[in-house]
Amino acid sequence: MRGAQLVGRWVESYTGMSADNIKGLLLALSSSLFIGASFIVKKKGLKKAGAAGVRAGVGGYSYLLEPLWWAGMIAMIVGEVANFAAYAFAPAILVTPLGALSIIISAVLAHIMLREKLHIFGILGCILCVVGSTTIVLHAPPERQIESVTEVWDLATEPAFLLYAGIVLAAAFVLIFRFAPQYGQTHIMVYIGICSLVGSLSVMSVKALGIALKLTFSGMNQLVYPQTWVFSFVVVSCIVTQMNYLNKALDTFNTAVVSPIYYTMFTSLTILASVIMFKDWDRQNPTQIVTEMCGFVTILSGTFLLHKTKDMVDGMFTFTLLVTCNSFCPYILIGPDHRSPAKFTHPTSETFG
Description:
GO molecular function, one term: magnesium ion transmembrane transporter activity
Pfam families: Mg_trans_NIPA
Strand content: under 5%
InterPro entries: EmrE-like, Mg_trans_NIPA
Shape: globular
Distance between the termini: 77 Å
Number of strands: 3
Transmembrane segments: 22-41, 61-78, 84-109, 121-141, 161-181, 188-209, 229-246, 253-277, 289-306, 313-334
Radius of gyration: 24 Å
Order of helices and strands: HHHHHHHHHHHHEEE
Subcellular location: Cell membrane; Early endosome; Membrane
Largest sheet: 3 strands, antiparallel
């Protein structure tokens, strides 16, 4: 015991972090690892199930009988539990941004294990998504203190959030019944849009249910309130819908593209829902709000780049790049085009006209 205390003190003095913060950091990192890996394991399970039955992308559910898919689900659950536990040790400003690491882990594992090409523009898009999401989360206000599930219900039934929920549900229904049957297999934003829209409502309901359970365990029984069970029903309905269309997206499109777009859209809409429901921006100054908006713009830039270049193949474009080795050794990189690889050519008088 004394040895452990000495080690803990040494770690604290060496890193400048408290022991609890270090525990939270390790839990958050393990959460990102499990969640990032779960996308890849689930994708492999979906491929294996699709080879033996009807693919999830065209309405099949054979993946429910595939152990590999369930292994991915378990990995995701373990990651979410670790993420939840991290908040018990470290502040949200430390834990939440680390969730963005799951994007990098997922993209790298997809490149290694699934042989899904991640080109330079995909890497840049991932970086923009991570930077934008991290900027928003780091400047998010502290959580509002809630004393009862009825207080959450009052917040959820205010006109502003009812309007948001109505718009989200209407958009989700239009995507599900109008666009998904026709464009779901060709437009990545259809399935991911459904997941993200419904997911923002699921997080608000999960938050409400978590508050109810926390208060119940502390001695204030919230299970007697009907609002608790309404939130429970919304959680189950939203998560089932969310996972169904996430499986379709993973089965249809490149995992390295699905993961960051889903993360950024889901995070953005969840923060927006929280701002409306819990009035987070009422407790912030204009500088903080502008910084968060810059984060949104960065996320949109990364999402756009990923979306527009997701089908790009190396050697699609012809370009000219001047590479200066040193002041005496300039070279011109000409190409590539769709027929021949890039090659270095020594500059001549004809090269410069």
